Amino acid sequence: MTERPDVSIVIAFHNERDSLPQLLDELKAALTDFPLTCETLLVDDASTDDGADMVERFAASHEGFRLLRLARRGGQTECYRSAFAAAHAPYIIRMDADLQDSPADLVKFVEPMREGADLVMGLRECRRHRRLLRLASAVYDIMIMLIFDTPLHSNSGSYVCFRTALVKDVPFRKNDHRYLPLIAMRRGEGHVREVLVRHRSRRYGESKYRPFKKLLLGLPEVIRFLFRLKRGYYDLVRTPSGSSARSIR
């Protein structure tokens, strides 16, 4: 790809060998007639299966796809740190690799981006998660709404689009990837949109984030994050505006 893309699609994965063939095929189909120019960054979190090799072979024969490898296991936060630093586009769309997010829904983010949205949250309709995980997500969202004047109906979605300038050079701490929408809003987003996206059941493997852990052990982590956020730890250092803020076609 010689021209600068309009959007960078970022997908982190760890041991998703069974999901990757379908994901790559669906991405290829969704991007064939996509109205914006894209680069797709797939970040391997030190997988022990052959998923990264599969992605590498696919990227070698498909323009616009790139594989990034972490030398050692870093979790999703480190994956996004690496991908955001490598992204070239003025917008980033983050999505999961486990097939719960459908590449066919990428087109739903196009109109909000063209209208200048800084943050576009994908709201999952008919969530396929287990009851306890849905409860944990609801508790988190209620807590965030009580503390912040956030316009979003949910602040915990995985399928979300950001203006790149709002998530570049974030001083990430462990598990901060879970709070990227709040970080982006703190850093100065001015135009928030929401789009409905489908949610599919996970077909392969198991979730790496247990509902019990999210309910009982996640609260101290959230409190520490909110303390950092309120103290201005993530505040954007202003620089002269450049091409990263350009409008897309």
Task: Write up what this structure looks like.
The protein is an alpha/beta fold and 249 residues long. The chain has a single domain (7-245), classed as Spore Coat Polysaccharide Biosynthesis Protein SpsA, Chain A. The chain has eight helices and seven strands. The chain has a seven-stranded mixed β-sheet with strand order 3-2-1-4-6-5-7, with helices on both faces. It has helices spanning 20-32, 51-61, 75-86, 110-114, 131-147, 180-186, 211-216, 218-230; strands at 7-13, 38-44, 65-69, 91-95, 119-125, 160-163, 192-198. It is globular and about 50 Å long. The longest helix is centred in the middle third of the chain and has 17 residues, at 131-147. It comes from Rhodospira trueperi. This is Dolichol-phosphate mannosyltransferase. Keywords: Cell membrane, Glycosyltransferase, Lipopolysaccharide biosynthesis, Membrane, Transferase, Transmembrane, Transmembrane helix. Residues 8-164 form the Glycosyltransferase 2-like domain.
End-to-end Cα distance, whole Å, is 17 Å
Which sheet architecture does the biggest sheet show?
Answer: 7 strands, mixed
**Which fold name fills CATH's third level, the topology?**
Spore Coat Polysaccharide Biosynthesis Protein SpsA, Chain A
- Beta-strand percentage range: 15-25%
Question: CATH superfamily membership, which one?
Answer: Spore Coat Polysaccharide Biosynthesis Protein SpsA, Chain A
Mean pLDDT across the residues is 86
How many distinct beta strands?
Answer: 7
Shape: globular
Q: What is the secondary structure topology, with strand pairs?
A:
Blueprint: E1 7-13, H1 20-32, E2 38-44, H2 51-61, E3 65-69, H3 75-86, E4 91-95, H4 110-114, E5 119-125, H5 131-147, E6 160-163, H6 180-186, E7 192-198, H7 211-216, H8 218-230
Parallel strand pairs: 1-2, 1-4, 2-3, 5-7
Antiparallel strand pairs: 4-6, 5-6
InterPro entries: Glyco_trans_2-like, Glycosyltransferase_2, Nucleotide-diphossugar_trans
GO molecular function: undecaprenyl-phosphate 4-deoxy-4-formamido-L-arabinose transferase activity
Organism: Rhodospira trueperi
